[in-house]
């Protein structure tokens, strides 16, 4: 694992500070329950629903796209490579996340990040529909 230098730490802090209000705004504007047919299926029991996009004031990114990844109870999104940097929050359910070097559990309200080029895999471990709200950072 690489060590984080001061410039990287500042960039990460600015990114997190800029995205947090966006999550709150989008969550309050679009807090709805999804049905099993909403969005586009990407794996059995896993669907992606586009929520919205906006311009980014972060120099490294031109825009931010918000999507909800909706998991039916027990559904699994297989390992995939991230196309962009992302900030994810769990808006409902409980999940096990597997990365190359670690595995961890998250519940409603928890956040994590995904880096471009890295792999990620998710399983809804709850008995309810689980949702990952993802801010996809589109490079400038």
Topology:
Blueprint: H1 6-29, E1 40-43, E2 46-55, E3 61-71, E4 76-81, E5 85-92, E6 94-98, E7 103-107, E8 111-114, E9 119-124, E10 130-139
* Percent in strands: over 45%
Within the CATH hierarchy, at the fold level, what is the topology?
Answer: Jelly Rolls
**What is the topology, as strand order, of the major beta sheet?**
1-2-3-10-5-8
Shape estimate? globular
Question: Segments where pLDDT lies below 50 for 5+ residues?
Answer: 25-31
Order of helices and strands: HEEEEEEEEEE
Sheet bearing the most strands, described? Answer: 6 strands, antiparallel
Radius of gyration (CA) equals 15 Å
Count of all domains: 1
Give me the CATH superfamily: Jelly Rolls
Outline the structure in words:
- The chain is an alpha+beta fold and 140 residues long.
- It has a single domain (40-139), classed as Sandwich (Jelly Rolls).
- The protein has one helix and ten strands.
- It has a six-stranded antiparallel beta sheet with strand order 1-2-3-10-5-8, with helices on one face. Strands 4-9-6-7 form a four-stranded antiparallel beta sheet, with no helix packed on it.
- The chain is globular.
């Amino acid at each position: 694992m690489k060590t984080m230098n001061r410039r990287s730490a500042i960039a990460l802090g600015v990114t997190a500070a800029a995205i947090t209000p966006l999550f709150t705004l989008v969550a309050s504007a679009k807090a709805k329950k999804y049905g099993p047919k909403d969005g586009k299926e990407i794996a059995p029991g896993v669907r992606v629903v586009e929520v919205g996009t906006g311009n980014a004031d972060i120099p490294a990114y031109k825009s931010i796209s918000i999507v909800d990844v909706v998991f039916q109870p027990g559904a699994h999104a297989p390992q995939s490579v991230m196309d962009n940097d992302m900030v994810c929050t769990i808006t409902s359910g409980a999940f096990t996340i597997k990365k190359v070097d670690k595995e961890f559990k998250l519940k409603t309200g928890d956040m994590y990040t995904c880096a471009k080029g890295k792999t990620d895999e998710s399983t809804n471990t709850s008995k309810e529909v689980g949702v990952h709200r993802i801010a996809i950072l589109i490079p400038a």
